[in-house]
Amino acid sequence: MIFRQLYDHESSTYTYLLAERVGGEALLIDPVKSNVDQYIQLVNEMDMKLVMAVDTHIHADHVTGLGDLRKSTGCISAMGETSKAECVSLHFKEGEKLKVDNLYLDILYTPGHTDDSYSFVLADRVFTGDTLLIRGTGRTDFQNGDPADQYDSLFHKLLTLPDQTLVYPAHDYHGMTVSTIREEKQHNPRLQVPDKQAYVELMNSLQLDNPRMMDIAVPANRNCGLKSVA
Ligand code: FE2
Question: Residue 43 has what pLDDT?
Fold first, then answer.
């Protein structure tokens, strides 16, 4: 399998390139608009064909590369069925799979950070978007976020994956690149709560500034990053 974890310095976003083999099909998770040329070059250098670009959710901190990638490569652009991005060519839902040659990613609906947040499970790893971060969880105070939903997504879905499952989030602000479900269960401070009510209170007590790019990124991303519709 080909697996590349790409990093956007501006927004601390991780973008993942997945393929079964050199010369085969490729998938991008959470591409950033300003890095689209880099992704296309990398895919071309490995003689691969980009067949799909997906976002785990509508991001508030960077503009998505979904629209540009679809325009330049003809790939499918995809988001979850609860997403308000009508520009995508495919809406997926929980229980379905994303396919890249013989790689299959199981789709989990993991709302809470936003109401359009999804995670993807591929064999030994899970792409958690902003639902589960390394030693953190995504904020729940805008974009129809809901800490009670996030508790359910975490404790009833992601944390029920095998302990050794590798955790690849959409962001990291501290230089961490990967974790495991076991590590997060044991050491993630947001997960050391006795019940849902305690988690809701914890999340509601956070005082966070809005992301710098939020007013630009959210409307742009509803249109796949091609232009603002605000
Ligand atoms: Fe996010």
Answer: 98
47 CA to middle of ligand 1, Å?
31
Q: Which residue, 27, 7, 32, is CA-closest to 17?
A: 27
**Domains of the chain by range and CATH?**
2-210 (3.60.15.10)
Ligand 1 mean position to 197 CA, how many Å?
Answer: 23
Q: 182 CA distance to ligand 1 centroid (A)?
A: 23
> Considering the chain, what percentage of its residues have pLDDT values greater than 70?
99
CA of 115 to the centre of ligand 1 (A): 11
Q: What is the DSSP-derived secondary structure letter of residue 174?
A: S
Any idea which residue has 């003689």 for tokens? 47
Residue 26's identity, in one-letter code, is A
**Tens-place pLDDT, residues 13-56:** 999 999 999 999 999 999 999 999 999 999 999 999 999 999 99
Indicate the pLDDT class of residue 230, thresholds 50, 70 and 90: very low
Q: pTM of the entire structure? A: 0.96
Buried b (16+ CB within 10 A) or exposed e, 165-176: bbbbbbbbeeee
194-223 pLDDT, tens digit per residue, is 999 999 999 999 989 888 889 999 999 999
CB atoms within 10 A of CB 101: 18
**Which tokens hold the place of 40?**
């296309």
Q: How far apart are CA 92 and CA 126, in angstroms?
A: 17
Q: Please answer whether residues 107 and 93 qualify as being in contact, where contact means their C-beta atoms are separated by less than 8 angstroms.
A: yes
User: 226 CA to middle of ligand 1, Å?
Assistant: 19
For 132, phi then psi, to 5°, come to: -120, 120
